[in-house]
Amino acid sequence: MNKGTRVLTQGITGATGQFHTRACKEYGTQMVAGVTPGKGGSSFEAIPIFDTVEKAVSATGANASVIYVPPPFAADAIMEAADAGLELIVAITEGVPIMEMVRVKRYLEGKKSLLLGPNCPGVITPGECKIGIMPGDIFQRGSVGVISRSGTLTYEAVDQLSRLGLGQSTCVGIGGDPVHGLDFVDVLILFNEDAQTKAVVMIGEIGGSAEEETALWIKANMRKPVVAFIVGQTAPPGKRMGHAGAIISGGKGTAREKIEALKKAGVQMASSPALIGQTMKESLSGNF
Amino acid sequence: MNIHEYQAKELLRRFGIPVPRGRAALTPQEVRAIAGELGGSCVVKAQIHAGGRGKAGGVKLAGSPEEAEKIAGEMLGKKLVTHQTGPQGRQVKCLLVEERLNIEREFYLGMVMDRSLSCVSVIASAEGGVEIEEVAQRSPEKILKEAIDPAVGLLPFQCRRLAYGLGLSGERANLLLSIAQGLYRAFVERDCSLAEINPLLLTREGELVALDAKMNFDNNALFRQPEITALRDLDEEDPKEYEASQLGLSYIALEGNIGCMVNGAGLAMATMDIIKLYGGEPANFLDVGGGATKDKVTEAFKILLSDKRVEGVLVNIFGGIMRCDVIAQGIVEAAREMRVTVPLVVRLQGTNVELGKKILSESGLSIIPAETMAEAAEKIVKAVRNNS
Fold first, then answer.
1. pLDDT tens-digit profile of A86-99?
2. pTM of the full predicted structure?
3. How far apart are the C-alpha atoms of B48 and B95, rounded to whole Å?
4. Lower Cβ count inside 10 Å, N or C end of chain A?
């Protein structure tokens, strides 16, 4: 994902689609097309709009998509993008029925598209390419990779890093839903191989067992330092804390279990959300 | 979203799953009438959105319609406290009156959204009638599981594998197959997040019956499930949580005295966590979402302050797309309109933060500013302590 990535926006004619397409374009991302069925032939601020993803790709050579389509139609939009052969699909939409995502994941098997989200803020390589809704100004170019299930908590962490002079290589929001595309391990594999990335900040939440499974992978494979923070230590069981995936059920998915698992894997844990940047700083200067 | 046992059973019945004969009742007289229909002897079950009712005295056997009526009189209108309701318990407004069945064996049969595999999984166990998490802990080998491929659904050979694993064969295995497939169809067609039959009863006559049923639904899918949404029981939900959801806010009540208002679920959880870290107790989780306008902030203050336990408020907003000056303006106007008198700490960060801080300091309201999350948490905990 870099300056050469050509991005199309699905749901470009909605208010959110318009606002963020403009913002990404201003950041420097190549926003080359929009797709809204029925609005083909029109345009948004000189960006041509097409009825289908296939037509948009054929006309503009787009290789990535960002989706702002509302929940009832978002799954279909993801599958249309995959069918058109896009390399990266970033689904921003929050509120997609879980059963739809189960079908989407099955549909994506064997296809070349990578899916990020849904219910995620997107992905950004500072200074090169921003696909999503994050505020570009807080990011700085550097060598810390960031992976997170959250949105604004990620901005908080990135802001802390930037203020300490620790710029970011790429920041990936995997989103807050229980069934989704790229997971922690998928992105860590990429960071492990990425020459730009020297260390990783990982932000997890209560709910599910992704962080525990990731801890096992880190122990066996990760060659670069990882600093993590797990949010939701004060969350009551059985309640959905905003994100569809942030729920402790049947006693499983607590913050404590995740923190323990990551500690065992040699991950440095930030003891407070205000100390994520500081913990990375200490990790990099060898203080653990 | 949750529903009552009697509603879950009615739903499962429509998907071909055998349930005990019986109906819901709201008065002792209705209970007596239903008991009569069932032949006199019956089971009276309190209907609340929580488990553990049996152990707490919420499930009673009655030998006659008169006895059933008496039991109903003792249960209705009273609070039932189970290990799942919390100490305050839930008020019982509705009872399910059912026929009594004999018990040959009890199984567990449930379907759940399997996050690790990104599909629906069916779980079965020969240890029915107890909490499945307990079984999973002490005897994990007694848990049978089948992952269901969404492209083909729950296949007969998978059902046979479960049946044989449960010690069922022949006609009974066929019954299990029919029930499991009915449960899967219900799960998918009604967008469940959980569908549990515990226990699935095998009677001496060789019938399989869902003796208890629990169904939870994916909140993200309610827009396309009007029949399910109609089953919602607001008496079982915190009124503030419901009101917030109607306004597009995400709110969860907690036990403490420091109210929080944040944009973004992750940051909101982090704010709760950091208040605790600094020795305070959060009163709630509240995510105002991406559009923290003056109206949203006002509504959020209203809900926060309607909790009488709140003795201080921490506002933590990371303004990305939303500019800090716009947010600050909203906070000032809302605080003025709501006449906020408890200590108010506001921490803003992000776009136009300096302008935002200026607006707060020049507002004439006693707003305590903070730079970092740590400073904000420290200040609000201190302010609340000093005030009390």
1. 999 999 999 999 99
2. 0.94
3. 9
4. C
pLDDT for A19: 93
**What residues in B contact A92, CB-CB < 8 Å?**
none
B256-295: pLDDT as tens digits: 999 999 999 999 999 999 999 999 999 999 998 876 677 8
Do A87 and A116 touch, CB atoms closer than 8 A? no
Nearest by CB to A235, from B218, B262, B269: name it: B269
pLDDT tens per residue across span B196-233: 999 999 999 999 999 999 999 999 999 999 999 999 99
CB pairs under 8 A between A and B: 169
Considering Cα of A122, then A124, then A129, then A133, what sign does the dihedral take?
positive
Contact B220 A96 (CB under 8 A): yes
Other residues' Cβ atoms within 10 Å of the Cβ of residue B291: 12
Helix, strand, coil percentages in chain B from 3-state DSSP, rounded to 5: 40, 25, 35
Over residues A24-46, the mean pLDDT reads: 97
Six token digits for residue A260: 């323990």
Strand order in the sheet with A199-205: A129-132, A122-125, A168-173, A141-148, A199-205, A226-231, A268-269
Question: Are B53 and B84 within 8 A, CB to CB?
Answer: no
* Spatial contact of B362 and B296, defined as CB atoms under 8 Å apart: no
Count of all residues that appear for chain A in the document: 288
The 3-class secondary structure across chain A, one letter per residue, is CCCCCEEEEECCCCHHHHHHHHHHHHHCCEEEEEECCCCCCCEECCEEEECCHHHHHHHHCCCEEEECCCHHHHHHHHHHHHHCCCCEEEECCCCCCHHHHHHHHHHHCCCCCEEECCCCCEEEECCCEEEECCCHHHCCEEEEEEEECCCHHHHHHHHHHHHCCCCEEEEEECCCCCCCCCCHHHHHHHHHHCCCCCEEEEEEECCCCHHHHHHHHHHHHCCCCEEEEEECCCCCCCCCCCCCCCCCECCECCHHHHHHHHHHCCCEECCCHHHHHHHHHHHHCCCC
Residues A68 and A93: beta-carbon distance below 8 Å: yes
Using DSSP bridges, classify how beta strands B95-99 and B42-46 pair: parallel, antiparallel or unpaired: antiparallel
Interchain pair B116, A99: CB under 8 A: no
Residue A63: which residues within 8 A CB-CB, separation 6 or more?
A5, A6, A57, A86, A87, A88
Point out the catalytic residue in the list B6, B108, B184, B251: B108
**Annotated catalytic residue A180:** no
Q: Where do the DSSP E strands lie in chain B?
A: 22-25, 42-46, 59-62, 79-80, 90-91, 95-99, 105-114, 119-125, 143-148, 192-202, 208-210, 213-217, 250-253, 258-262, 284-287, 312-319, 344-350, 367-370
Give residues 214 to 253 of B whose Cβ lies within 8 Å of A: 218-221, 223-224, 250, 252
Instruction: Kindly report the number of other CB atoms within 10 A of residue B68's CB atom.
Output: 29
pLDDT of the residue at A60 = 98
